[in-house]
Amino acid sequence: MTSSPPALTRIRIGSAPDSWGVWFPDDPLQTGWERFLDEVADAGYAWIELGPYGYLPTDPARLREETGRRGLRVSAGTVFTGLHHGPAVWDDTWAHVSRVAELAQAAGAGHLVVIPSFWRDDKTGAVLEDRVLTADQWRELARQTERLGREVRDRYGLRIVVHPHADTHVDTPGNVARFLDATDPDLVSLCLDTGHYAYCGGDSVALLKEFGERIGYLHLKQVDPRILAEVVAEELPFGPAVARGVMCEPPGGVPALEPVLAAAQELGAARDVELFAIVEQDMYPCPPDRPLPIARRTRDYLRSCGAR
Question: Tens of pLDDT along 261-276?
Answer without folding.
Answer: 999 999 999 999 999 9
